Amino acid sequence: MDFRVLGPVRLQVRGQAVAIGEPRRQAVLAVLLLEAGRTVGVDLLIDRVWGESPPEQVRRSLQAHITRIRRALEQADPDGAQVARDPGGYRLVARPEQVDVFRFRRLLREHPTDVAGLSAALELWEGEPLAGLRGDWAERTRRTLRQEYTAAVVAWADAKIRDGDAAATLTRLTELTDEHPLQEPAAAALMRALYAVGRGADALTHYERILRALREELGADPGPELAAVHEAILRHDLPTAGAAAVPVPAQLPADVAAFTGRADVLAELDRLADGTGEEPVLVCLTGTAGAGKTATAVHWGHRIRDRFPDGQLYLDLCGYAPGEPMRSSDALAALLSALLPEGTRMPPGEAERAARFRTEVAGRRMLVMLDNAATLEQIRPLLPGTHTCTVVVTSRDSLAGLVALHGAHRVDVDPLSVADAADLLRRLIGTRVDAEPEAAAELAERCVRLPLTLRLAAELAVSRTATPLSRLVGELRAAQQTLKLLSSGGDQRAAVRAVFSWSLRQLSEDTIRAFALLGRHPAPVFDSYALAALTGSSFDQARARLDALVRAHLVHPIGTDRYGMHDLLKAYAAEIESEHDEPAALDRVYGYYLATVAAAMDRLYPGEANRRPSVASPESAMPALDDADSARDWLDAELPTVQALAAGGRPEHVVTLSALLFRYLDGHHETAALAVHGHAIKAARAIGDRAAEASALVAVGGLHMQAGRAVSAAADMWTAYALFGEAENPLGQARALGNVGMIEESAGYYRQAADYYTRALALFHRLGDLTGQAHQLTRLGTVEARIDRREEGYEHLRQAMALHRAAGHRFGEAWVKIGLGELAANEGGLADSCRLHAEAAALFGKLGHRGSEAWAIDGLGRAEALDGRPVDAAAHHRQALDLFRRHGGRDGESWALNGLGEACLACGYPDTAGANHAEALAVATRYGCHEQIARAHRGLARAASDPETVRDHYERAIARYAELGLPAAEGTKTEFAELSMS
After folding, report:
1. Of 399, 396, 499, 394, which Cα lies nearest the Cα of 445?
2. pLDDT of residue 459
3. What is the side-by-side strand order in the sheet with 390-395?
4. 60, 146, 259, 631: which could join 625 in a potential S-S bond, CB 3.0 to 4.6 Å?
5. Which has the closest alpha carbon to 13: 72, 91, 96?
6. pLDDT of residue 640
């Protein structure tokens, strides 16, 4: 039996509804149900069902209802619930789990913070409790049950928010607050959820709505919890730990098909992982190339992945691939990219990244798999500092230092046993192994019982079903005899090379050539377009050859039209390619990548096409990049390949890549940008190209500037200016001068910045470079708006907009809109200012420039504050602060924090305002943003109550504004004087 009161009162037996009867009888049953197992007195029953004015024959009516309820229960299930007659009253004999309200309360008690348990509790509700019942008791009970429901929804929502699924709570919370607008716990939960999904402005709007309702209907202000949530949103420190979903990486590669053997290794890994010590479990799988170290580690990882609910990290450290092993700093960047919420700014140095990595994995139950490690020095920074993580390292080296210094457990992965090797061949080839056991045994030995070579041999056997295994073994025997003679020995390496050579003989000449040329490909991942370029063939031909290589297990797919190679196979491919000696292949593949990068940049930033180096059309096919989105997607996907190209290309290719990618890398992808431009600086120096070196220095200086390293940025820009002079490149000198102006602007020295912009503008004008003129006019007009040169600023911005629009340069248009928005705000055109800033933010968002978008959103907040909308202003300053912190722009952080402080003060929160201004002061001081230092002092003065503190901050603000020559000096002086008089 299943009794329901969390909705209409009803009874279900084996899924079938049982009729209870009229509402009064339902009310009698409801009273008994809510007191199930306890005696309810007759007078109490009558009071709850009929109220204060029952009819004269009420006891007879009650007896009739009890009789009919008993009859319904008996007919539904003779062995089920009953209504017993006790002295003085009636008692429903039923188990609590048979009544939905008791199941609901039990779930809440047992699962107060568990999403699944809370969801199950809420699923018991079918609408209004005790639906259709009238009377004071029914209404009081409904009110109590509604409060329990609200508490359950709030607990469920908080659990979902902690789990990073705040979006799923919005519908239910919105419905609840619409139905019960004065329920403060529900309102607070909705505000937390809105904040968690990035809708802080909506959260603050909802607060204003409930504030008005409480004052109008109850004459009261919000309680402490709701007020605290509101203030935390304004402060930008609402503790919603899971608001941005904590990433749970699942990076293990696919498990190996037909994995065979290694029972002893797997058992040892299980034993080590079961350790309960306070140190991380650190295992090193060592063995020769091709022994299956990676396959064993990955197979084990899939077997026990449930032990690591916080995620599994996998990284190929490329310790034995052609080229340089992965640097520790790059490895940390890759690991952190999987752990940090999307858009979080990457720490700049190796030490900072290592510390952040240890912080991110602290206390989390994670598997960290570091594949193909080369040295202890490479992996030491990648080791967690928490015992909750299990680390598995694979390496051909014994890594003795890892064992001695870090307590690693070494597990050797030897060639397969005779029995396991035969079993693997049997699983791959089938019954032919049992038909020719001696040939199969020799085949295993000829393959040195290594899984890699066994699989290659098995693929050949499968492709030649009519050929006896004994004949195949004879062919392999002959191939190995030849290699023994050539290598003057019969070592394992020669045997492995013989298997590779034998595998290739079964392929067409064109496919063998494709395999060999892939050994020269500079990146670990490639696609059909890259192979078409390497081989000088069509896309369809390249795709067909890759399919053949996949079937032969010589390459393996890792995504849609994306492939990789075992490093042993790649080394062999490079070895046989050297015999063919096709130097033009690398030129073709670099030509392909350069041309495709150029095409993608033209789609994304057409207005700057004339500033990028021209690139010849490739000899091979290119992917269709029909719009800006597809261009950005291609660049994002190929960024690791581009980094590899920059690390190993000819100097001319490297400097061209750096110049092509400047705008794409600008403002984000800091790690990749430093790598690409850093390689370009070395390449340019190697060939004595002063202009190319200077261009790369300008790019690196820009990265330093965004990170708040003003001294390094200025040094790079002035060095670049001198190099451009040596190269007799006035266009480059103009770029360097403009960037020096940006450094001065960031510091708040607007008059000096205007001087540099004017000098750069004159150079660009003399050279006829319209793009350069547009950029300098944009910056010049913006700083003029800040030093009260409004007419000049407007004219310069108008000219800049015309040039940007003529060139189709939307990035420049957006920056002009920010400058025009500042001018409009200064002149009281606040609606226009808000519109212009919003349009700029939308443009930057489409272009993917989040750092620039932050400036537009921060400007929108300032306009809203001037317009008397501090709640909206606070939300936008908070959003801008998020973006600045995630995407660089340290000076921007001080702007957003000061804006947040001003908005909080306008909302009536002086303590919160002071905290924001204090943080702004610290950030601005650290990064040398002098105008924001003055603004922070003024904000601290306004938020303070102690007269001496007020005076001190006002005097500091006035002095700093005066030093900068800014109009705010007089305004702040007047403000202080008026305050002193009052």
Report:
1. 499
2. 84
3. 312-316, 367-371, 390-395, 281-286, 409-412
4. 631
5. 72
6. 87
